[in-house]
Design goal:
The chain is an alpha+beta fold and about 100 residues long. It has one domain. Strand 2 and strand 3 form a beta hairpin.
Length: about 100
């Protein structure tokens, strides 16, 4: 038990560092903070589980040659997908699973 508690504490500490850089690294996106899975609407978890099960190719991809155009790509992607102004971004982190952004 003590070993697993220590591992979780160490993981949380590592993730705190990762979380502090994630929102800063998202060019063209304004972060409103992290949310836990239980703070997201129920449909989000269902959709994520559906996407993780699929083995399809992505329907959109940013080109490696768009240097300086990431903001425009994100804006176009959000409009084309009709995802609205605010959205959740999955982080892959255990303690900071979702980021609310605009």
């Amino acid at each position: 038990m003590a070993g697993s508690e220590l591992r979780l504490k160490l993981q949380r500490r590592r993730e705190e560092g990762q979380a502090s850089t994630i929102s800063e690294s998202l060019s063209g996106v304004r972060s409103f903070g992290y949310v836990q899975d239980d703070e997201m609407p129920d449909w989000v978890g269902l959709k994520v589980a559906e996407w993780l099960r699929s083995e399809s190719l992505p329907d959109s991809r940013i080109d490696d040659e768009v240097d300086g155009q990431v903001d425009q790509w994100i804006e176009k992607f959000s409009m084309d997908s009709k995802m609205g102004k605010r959205f959740y971004c999955r982080t892959g982190l255990l303690f900071f699973p979702g980021l609310t952004a605009k």
